[in-house]
Amino acid sequence: MVSGRNRHATHPVNAMLNYAVLESQVRIAAVAQGLDPTIGYLHARRPGRVALVYDLMEPLRPQADRLVLDLVRSHTFSPTDFILETSRVCRLHPQIARQVAEANVRGEVIQEVTSQFANGWASSCPRCVQRAPIAAVV
Fold it and tell me: What is the chain's pLDDT, residue by residue, as a tens digit (138 residues)?
């Protein structure tokens, strides 16, 4: 469950797993903890990549995957729920995309993972914590 984008999935279930919004949820929680989302430990650091977000997603991935798989088991799909492009990439119909996006890992669980990281290992790495407080988004 990556980013609200469908990254070249060729199967409907993979398209749903890719579409989920876990990346956005974790990014918000990491920034709220004052963490620099670009400094990763497990994922390589590259320009424009939020490596720490991907690191923090790893312990949450089984829960996120379970939510999508529960949706797959409980829903009867039709061929119109998916769009197969000529490049063989499978896209989600907006209604199915909305259902997948609503299958979120609970915010408290995400908050727990990010705060444990911020209060634990990241506290020993001053460059990992942003210096200026983050302004609230209104």
Answer: 334 445 688 899 988 888 768 888 999 999 998 888 988 877 877 777 889 999 999 999 999 999 999 999 999 999 999 999 888 899 899 999 999 888 889 999 999 999 988 887 656 666 655 544 455 444
Residue 137 lies in a domain: no
In the chain, the number of structural domains is 1
* Structural domain span for residue 122: 12-128
Give the CATH number, domain containing residue 32: 1.20.120.920
Burial of 32 (0-12, 13-18, 19+ CB in 10 A): middle
Give the distance from CA 112 to its chain's centroid.
15
- Do the domain assignments include residue 98? yes
